[in-house]
Amino acid sequence: MREIIVALLVGLALCGCSRAEYEDENIRITQYTGVESGALSPTAITDADVDAEIGEILDANAEKAETSRAAGKGDIVVIDYTSETDSSLDLELPVTADGGLQESLAGHKKGERYEWVDPVGNIYTVTVKMVMEKHVPELTDAFVKTVSRTTGTVKEFRGEVKKQLEDRAEREYRAQLADGAFDAVLANTEVLQYPDLTDIENEIKSQYQEAANDSGVDYETYIRDYIGQSLDKFDEGIQEASKAQAKETMAVRAIADQEKLIQTEKEQATALEALAKEYGYEDAAAMEKDIGRDRALSYAMAYAVREWLADHAK
To answer: Which residues, 6 or more positions from 205, have their beta carbon under 8 angstroms from its beta carbon?
Structure first.
């Protein structure tokens, strides 16, 4: 009996007849629970990270004052520039040592005009309109009270900043976990029968039609001159993109149904609020007004599935 069971198991392995974790007439997912995400652990926040973040906060709160001297590294210079192909007015640039236009500003005073040549030979006429010094504030208890609502001392502020960085690192880790898990699920997914892709294809094409309109050319010209493809080749790409989008949607719906995610109105409301917060909306109502309820629910379901996958990934 034992020999028969072993033989059956070997036969299954050889023919690749593994049981799918989910399968219906349209889609087959061999595994979605416990997939390998490839995500690394959250980044450990060091004192140097805190120092760098506080340095950026101090720099963002620096005061600028006009000076009559020549510009030097760290100053802000207001310029106009023109070339045969480009121009800009009242452009504020910091003087840096990057070897480009910003480094060329060093040594010039208000009212001076000079030429700068970019790496490919374009000649720019630069007019210096103002040179400003930056006065970066010191990190003191008094400064902390101007930028923090919850702390009043430098020590407390450093703790607050560290917590913010840790939260950011955790969010980035969760995003990597969800992305990696979902990519693994898609690799384990086979579409047995695609739905009608017309709506998806038309939506993708409409985005390029809008881009063509914004560029002042017709659709075919935009695809040929801006994308660099023939219409036939571009249509092939749209078909593949539509299939990929449909595959993702089908996988999301299959897992959501299997794991009973977002089944009730209360769960929908909770998921929409979570998604609105993630996308930076004031609330779910504002998000729905912007993108529509159907699309918001679709995104919320995808978000819930990705979070579920992250929770169950390796």
So the answer is: 219, 238
